Structure of Putative LmbE-like protein:
Amino acid sequence: MTHDSTLQAMPGDWERALAIVAHPDDMEYGASGAVAHWTSQGRSVGYVLASRGEAGIDGMPPEEAGPLREREQVASAAAVGVDTVEFLDHTDGVIEYGLPLRRDLAAAIRRHRPELVVMLNHRESFPGGGLNMADHRNVGLATLDAVRDAANRWVFRDLLDQGLQPWQGVRWVAVAASPLATHAVEISATIDRAVRSLLEHRAYLEGLGEAAGDPDSFLREAAAETGARFGGGLACSFELIPM
């Protein structure tokens, strides 16, 4: 589908989702409204972050920023009903695509056993043409590969020694902020929680200064734009990839 096409409703016949992203705040720039919608329905959503976002605040050394951003992410996730947040300690800003990352993500998928995996855009650009960054691209591509790795007992065989049996139950990967969005979730009832979730990243937003803009307006305007392609109201879009 093209960027201006009508969006379809996301599948609803699942119980467990796992969001895998590179940094604190990645889920909050758009996808957390959908997470709040899902958790309000009683579905389980967990977060796995490849890094602690320690390179994300220009005026704060990574040794200070990492623990602070970790705390902000835990509070941010709680605002949308997520109480499981894991950090994998890959180095923020220089996350490399490769076997170590794929192994860590495959292990996480085996631990959480999701039916739906949510991730951030892995393509070269965002909707509107803004250039994507390497961490997002690398973690996204590794996530797609790790879904298959998690299903194959003969890939990363040491995971079996840890009691992590293959998981073949991932039915879809949903890519947030994709320029090739196909599906959407109605978030009119959860947009306030999505805004609160983003605002929990106080130190990060303060570090951005004027570049942060108004998070409330940003999320509402983006949701309204997506909603116009989804029957009106407010919505969050995804590129849905069947597995």
In short: The helical segments are 32-40, 62-78, 99-112, 134-151, 158-161, 191-199, 202-208, 215-227. The mean pLDDT is 96. DSSP finds eight helices and eight strands in the chain. Strands lie at 8-9, 16-21, 44-49, 85-87, 116-120, 172-176, 183-186, 235-242.
